[in-house]
Design a protein that fits this description.
395 residues; mainly beta; 11-stranded mixed sheet; 9-stranded mixed sheet; 5 helices; disordered N terminus
Length: 395
Amino acid sequence: MKFTLSVSLALIGLLTPAYPQDGPGCRVDPASPSIGADIPETYFGPPPSTAQKELIGPLQLLTAGRLDARAGTLTLPLYRGRVRQGNRTVWYILTDTTDEGNAKALGLNFAPKLFYAAVSDKAVRTATLQRDGTLLFDAGYVDFSPERRVTPGPSNRPFPPALAEPGAIGDDNYSPLVRITNAGNHIYNAPIVAAGEDPAQFVIGPTSAPNPKFVHDNVLRISINTASPFASTVTMRLTPGFSFARPVLYLSTDASVAPVAALEGATLAPGLQDIDLGNDDSAFSAVERLFLTINGPTGCENPQRQGLYSALTDGRPPLNVLGGIPTVATDYSPLWDVNMGEWTQAAIDRGYRSRVIEEFQILALAAGGFITGPNGGKYGSSGFIVNCPIVFRFL
């Protein structure tokens, strides 16, 4: 098995989706509206989101793929390309673009802030569209052969981990962002999720389980159609979280620093390090904020469960809080500037520590001194990016 963890966590990793059998601390899907009512759920009308997508109710935002919200998975089209350096074959997905028309046509997220990520050739790679519909990338390759390893710290302070090594490492030129130079110069979020010349190596034996030496750690199933390159698919694990108190599911594909890539089961993407942080809602910002709790309550039986301590000891997602997503705000970007927060001992002693689920709730707690940066430091950008395209809104 590629991923080893020195405590008895779920073998599929830290960011296991919240399944229905989990306790209340590991679920984000909303309860039935029939609870406390005099009528069963079948008597309730359709959610308002079916009439207007900005209203309360379930809504798939990344519609390019087939969603299983209960299982926390998304099956997407898989695209074949080649990297000019070394003439190597890669397989990638598409999640976001600056091309509004193509976003609507393909079911992608429209993310105009990605225009401002093009601050270097590493932050946004270049590619040319070939006559056969494939992309030829000028640079940027991912090695999926390393073994993902995470060892928590001491039981009373499991974060930072004693060891955190990612299972997928991009070279110095790798970024998931790509500008197609001969097709409008639009930028696409196109994370590489498999690499290799022989697709038969992408699966293991008769079970067809993904081979982690060739595919992304969050890939659950991969199907390569060699006869028709446009008929290939990949099923990926989703991560639950919140955005402005609404439970959501998102993809976790890349991170700019190695320890975070290891924790997320993501690819280390060094090119993302060139993108400026700490400016999420200013002019020319490429990022939006994500709020990560370090030392929230633990245990799936605890409805307040949240944070990295829990992820490292309970083997369940940290339940991060995202800033703006489409239909909730106008400042969405799949590039999240992570703000790590730690509950102070005074807040814990007073019983204030709980699950936080929206941005301004967190900012008020930081302003009041109840949450700080790591080790009591200033609250704000932690200096790294995670690439996490939004997929689904439960409410």
